[in-house]
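Title: Prediction job returns without error message
Component: structure pipeline
Severity: low
Priority: P3
Assignee: unassigned

Description:
Job completed but the reporter wants confirmation the result is attached to the right record. Sequence as submitted:
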Amino acid sequence: MHRGSSFQYRVDEPDRNFPSTNKDRERQADDYAAHLLLPANLFNPAINGFTSIGFAQIDEIRKQFDTSLLATTLRLVNINSRPVIFACYTKGGLVWSLRTRDVPRRWQLCKRLDEDSFAIDVVQSGKVHAAPGKQPAEVWFSNDEANHYEITECCINGQSGEVWVLLTLNSEMMEETDTGVSLRNCF
């Protein structure tokens, strides 16, 4: 990809390594690598072999394809085979999140970790929850309607004090509704 293009890497100024044009090219290269290393015709049957999906299951698939846990999880989200949200939190709160394209935008993640989340255990004591466990949706979402649903949550240590969280929504949450998003910040 991008034959004939060049890009400069600055060890002393890493924040200058990816101007917007290089970020787009890097994203395209990542997509190409995901399709090459984790092709949908092989990846989907591996994912569909599990009734529920968490980091323990993703780790099994990662080993089959000889890819990183992060790359395999991102592929799960981008391939859109399950209604999931992959998020990264620190003690300070939400750093980033990525959702499958079918997850309605009304499901807005809380900015801070809830005391009832499994992820708070990772931040406070390093105790991971690699297998999915049930949680009330209101632990994770700021929507007024969240108290009507249950989701699954799993979480592991990410990089440099991060916690990676994988949330799986249930089918009822995927239906379109006219309800609005609460202004509650989940602090």
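Comment from assignee: result matches the submitted record. The beta strands are 84-90, 93-99, 129-136, 150-157, 163-168.
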